[in-house]
Amino acid sequence: MKTITIHVAEDTYATFQGRAKEREQSASELIREAMAEYAERHFGTGRSVFDHAPASVGRVVRPLERDDDLMDEMLG
Prior knowledge:
0% strand
């Protein structure tokens, strides 16, 4: 693991300390997790779309039936 030095606003660090205490971990661990999540979200990992869990996009309006035309459904 690489040691780094960063400068953050005191209130930001206090927020991390408070959340870390709630989760019974160190602020350093929480910051490492946050940095890893940020890197994955913004820089990508090169993983396949199939490696991700499906996202919920709302409720089903009605189940699809065999005769449904999906293009009309999407454009209508």
